[in-house]
Amino acid sequence: MRPLVGFTPANLNIFKLAFSHKSNPSDKVYAMQNNERLEFLGDAVLGTIVAEYLFIKYPNANEGFLTKMRSKIVKRNTLNKIGDKMGLDMLLSDYSQTRLSRSMLGNAVEALVGAVYLEKGYGATKRFVIKKILRNYVDVHELESYDDNYKSQLLEWCQKNGQTVSYKLVARYKFEKRDRFKVAVMVDNKKIATADDFNKKSAEQTASEKAMMMLGIIADTGENGVLEEEEDEDEEENMNENGED
Hints:
3 strands, Ribonuclease iii, N-terminal Endonuclease Domain, Chain A, Double Stranded RNA Binding Domain, mainly alpha, disordered C terminus
């Protein structure tokens, strides 16, 4: 654990919990047997640290720019990539008795931040996030010009090429005790791609990105790998269990 966080934890159990998925069998109270509470805490702490970091880094930037930059850093796809680069899949395999999905990587990043916060407090957590995460795994300058509004990009492309684009809610179902949305993107009334997310707008963004790859508008980044495919399979199983088509 020391190579990962830069110190030897006094309470190693908190860090083990950060990589324990809710599917693990346990006699403990449900909320105390997995990383969901740490994920909740880490999400709030990470958002605050990133906001402060950007506020200092860009002293002349307006609120809109800072908000977009923070969103690009703490959004699920970015955190999943960070978790992958940090090698958190190995720790998840050690402490979670379940098949891994890409979303678990981002959740683990947040839970790890929560664990560091409980162990060391805000100051040390800020140093950990900036030195171990932001400087190693996030190219902030590249994000400045990076346009992640795929829905807007797809609409612009369709307008230029005389085609229509629309979105269809394919299913709404329960996954991990939360509502999850499956959305399809339609180009000239033909289904091009689908995506699932806990937020309908986020699902539309992901579906738009996939559609742009399918249409050859942007290059396939190769990030839709095994972990993501397994997540889709798990979602399909949950949809079937809930009687969705």
